[in-house]
Amino acid sequence: MSDTARAKVVFDDPHVHTGPAEAETMRVRTLQGPWRWALIVLTGLTIFLCINQQFALRFFVGYTPLNTEYFYLLILCMLPFTFLIFPGSEKASVEKIAWYDIVLFVLTAAAAGYLMTVIRKAAELGWEFGGAPDTIIWVGYYMWFVLMEALRRTGGWSLMLSVGPFTLYPLFADADWLGPLRGHQSSLSDSTAYHVLSTESLLGIPVQAFADTVIGFLIFGTALMMTGAGKFFINLSFALCGTFRGGAAKVCIFASGLLGMMSGSIVSNVLTAGTMTIPVMKRTGFRASYAGAIEACASTGAVLAPPVMGATAFVMAQFLNVTYAEVAMAAIIPALLYYAGLFMQVDSYAARHNLQGLPRAELPSMVETFKDGWFYAFVIVVLIVLLLYFKRESHAPFYATALLLVLAQWEQAGRWTMANTINLIAAIAATAALTLGGENVAKALVAPDEAAFDAWMNALLMPMLGGMLLLVALNEIWGEKRLSGQWYLKFLEVNGRTFVELIGILAGCGLLIGAFSLTGVVSSLANDLLTIAGSNILMLLAMCAITSLILGLGLTTTACYIFLAILVGPALEKAGLNRMSVHMFIFYWGMLSSITPPVAIASFAAAGIAGAPAMRTGWESMWVGSIIYFIPFFFVLNPALVMQGDGLEAIYLTVTALIGTLFVCGAIQGYQAFIGDMRRAGALEWPLRVMLGLGGLLLATPGGGIMPFSNATMELAALVALVPTALVAFLLVKRGAPVAV
Question: What is the pLDDT of residue 703?
Answer without folding.
Answer: 84
